[in-house]
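Recall from the previous lesson that a structure prediction takes nothing but the amino acid sequence as input. Here we apply that procedure to MFS major facilitator superfamily protein from Bifidobacterium bombi DSM 19703. The sequence below is the only information supplied.
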Amino acid sequence: MNRRHDEPSTGTVVKSDGRFSIYGRLFRLPGAKAFCVSGAIARLPNSMISLGIVLALNHLYDNWTIAGTMSAAYIFAVAAVTPFYARLFDRFGQGKVGWPCLALSVTMMLVFAFAALFRVPIAVLFILAVLTGLTQFAFGALVRTRWAYALRGEKSPDLLNAAYSMEAGIDEMVFILGPILAAFLATSVHPVSQLFVPAVACAIGGIVFFSLKDTQPPIVENVRVEASSQLDEAALHGSGNVGGLGDAQPMSLKSLRTGRAKPKSALLYGGVVPLVVVFVVFNMSFNEFDVSVTAMMKAIGREQYLGLQLAMFAVGSCIGAFAFGSVKLKGSKWRHLVVFLSLLTFGYVCCRLSMDSLPLLALFSVLSGLTVSPCFATGNLIIKDIVPPSSLTEGLSWINTAGSVGASLGSSLAGLVLDASDPHVALLLPVLTTFLAVPLSLCGWLLSRRRP
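The prediction returns the following tokens.
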């Protein structure tokens, strides 16, 4: 059974009111605006540091290989430790773990930025990049856990669906603004300035976020209740025959002992591993698409429009996020994921066929992007259904980890194909990887139906 610490006796229930949109109802929750906005600001490093490393290192050392390798090492370091931090947040609470982790994370970002500014040796900078990645944790998972706790008294799942869709849209806005801001700072202010801004944003957003104690989820402990050595199974079932003795003895609280049950990893809950595999595979398509389009734009001499072209995909995803949160979808969430991945595959096919016309490519990029945020929102909702509250942050963080791993693999694979062929061949990669994710999600759906 579960024991909650410091949990209010009653939850805040958001009553349905036709005068308010579903998103308006979300922000009527006490503290929702504050933790949503501060969490968004604190997520800015997610979209700036990896690109910032590439821009800074290429300018300072004029070496794309070193810049790309260091950025990939940073991303893998982040992916490796994200679930570990999430387990700490689940086990000990966001407030207790958040403050020291935030201080360590911001400190390492600043140390790395100053090291790049003063041009320390490449080997030292490489080590600092990995150490910086090892101090990063997923603010997105923390925000989504707060939404789940804030909406615990709401019987309808529509509000949580809207909240997770909105967070997916915020992720897209962060990934639209972050690279643009990083590129502007690197070219117009200073080649290393884009490494300092994420640290400041994380510090400001994180301080506000962890200061909001009223919306912090309580610690949920798994409590093991066992019979003492004097009781046998017959006594527990009320037979009255205790320890083989003929005298009936009443069972009291003293005859029981309790203790903390060690929480198991979120990966051990049925359905989580298949979902993580699906997200690794289909997240490969994003960087495959970006790298292939970048190579195409460079080949045709239209690099000045690259940022705008790539932003079209994210704009479509942002629109899809808010649209998805406003509708009610019935049936299995796994089925929804299969449908969205199938539509995304078709969208990539259209992008490949129209790649020689930039206006058509931009149009199909927006249309393809409409399904991306719904995929992420649906994945988070599946995790919410599978994983208990005591491991929810860790479960949600595995989605972020899968995305980071998939993005890194996609970049590497696209680079290999581009070296061997051309952008027309490389732009087939997102079609193939997303198409592969469809049967994998079907397998996850079948496994979830068999799970009791």
